[in-house]
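Worked problem 6 (solution included).
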Amino acid sequence: MIPDEVVEQVSAAADIVAIIGEHVKLKKTGSVWRGPCPFHQGTNANFSVMPRGGYTCFVCGEKGSVFTFVQKRLGMSFVEAVKYVGAKSGIEVQEVQRKREGPDPREPLWELHGTVAEYFQRQLWDTPAGAEARAYLASREVSRATAERFGLGYAPRDLNALREHLRGLGVPEERAIAAGILVHREEGDEIRPRFRDRLMFPILEQGGKVVAFGGRLLGPGEPKYLNSAESEIFSKGKVLYNLGAARNAIRREDRVVIVEGYFDALRLVDAGVEHVVAPMGTALGEGQAELLSRFTKHAVLLYDSDGPGQKATFRASDVLLAKGFEVRVVTLPEGEDPDTFVRAKGIAGIAPLIEQAMDVFDRKVQLLQRAGWFNDLQHKRRALDRLLPTIRAASDPITRDLYLARAAEAAGIAREVLLQELHAVRRGTRTTGRPAEAARASVAGQYPRGAGSGGEFRDRDADAPPPGDEAAPAVFRGPYRSPVEQGNAEQTLLRVLLTQPIWQDLIAEELGKLEMEELPEGAGDDAFAEDQGSVLRDPVYAALYAAAMHHGADADPEQFTSGLDAREIYVYETLRGEADAVVDAKRSIADAMRQLRGRSVDARVAELKSILPLADEAEKDVIIAKINKLTEEKRALGVPRWGAVRR
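Solution. The predicted structure is:
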């Protein structure tokens, strides 16, 4: 920190005209200096600088002190700006550390991660074991200079190599286990490295210290990407990949480009787009959006062009809108992702797409229009159900009003009707923006009360025990009984997710595929899917899944349960204690997904049967053919089937 008296001394000594004059061509007019505004690239002399005051642009409204100018123009933090202005003014500015009793207890963990990062780098470049990783980087056209810029490394397949290296350095094994570098899952198990045969991406906090790693598997297996576990120095919901290196560029551009993965970020930076970050392999969270809001309020989402990529785009946009961001999205050509596109087209290809990025709400409306969702009443109702959460998410009242008007125009309904819908608790669907509550609302809105979907709980207090356990206070007695058919399948997925978080990516991918399959016919492959958690119809399991996607399945229990009610916390704790029930995780996931797909097919058949009496003869033939095709699909799944339909 810099003492206030030093900041005041620098401000008083600074020649604001000279400092700003290095970046703007100024001309004296009376008692002030004027020139073209550097913030909106103006050409007229609308930018005014007062020698003993600040600056103001009378067109775009930018104004501030000499420190503000340096921060925005050069992309510096406040402390960096004070030091910069102090140097220009002949004043040496030194930070004063806050008093701390004794050394920082996190220092050994930072030091350990830095040591391990250096070890991984040597393994990549200087050992025969790193040959496969070097070949993989070459296949993805990543140069050594770029790899070294990001500190990439390689975690060898050898179970004992890292352990022996740390032992030789005198690192206590207990410290390496506490840091998650080595793992000791059960008593009697051999201690082994968390990362093996993986290309390693060091994850840095804003100050430049290595706090975690992300590893990309080189051979066959799951999960493809693995992050460090949560620790005293790492919470993936509060860290963004490349933010430390990108923060000055983000301030300078007053915009951040958000991509999904490590390679996407690396590729854009290598091409010259420096203001880019990526979340830690999971959905963008509130903590990460809050972190970004310190640097800018303008975000551009650059995700994959496929269905899951679009779904991730819209989920991230709602989180950002809730934090007051203006959110735009880049649409890549079909089949492209940021890595492949920039590798082929370079900065010349991606820069115009970023500049022409579309407002996220306009993009949603565009997709729905192209897919024909506004052409009939059934689809129009569903289209509005997909637009309303984004309108609610927008914390800026002007943005929310603009979105409301756009949705009313697209749907061809009165704005007042949509406004009433926006503020209504329609079928219990109002949310507070927390992921668990959004999931409950999404599930609750699908079924009427008493439809066997958990509706019998909906009129009860959130902290009340389930029926039959009225005497139980905060902790419920007896096992949780899902009111939803195939609830056991949902329970199986959540048990695997919470006891073996390494399967999070696979479970999210499989449920994402099912969400896309459940879109109404005519939605098109490019339409976005339901809100997160909607495929899980039990409200408790849906809330737990949404919390896992938001915080990470391996998040600290206190963080994980922050948005859950008492019943959900009870089920969460129960499932986490049932690790022994998971014998074969991959098979359990496959069996559960087969059951859920069978349920999905049942629902689609029921919907087709409901409109069969309203169809004419030609339409009936088409509908019956679809029903019989779905019948065959369910037969192939090997789950209980119904009879085919005949005329």
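Discussion: The mean pLDDT is 83.
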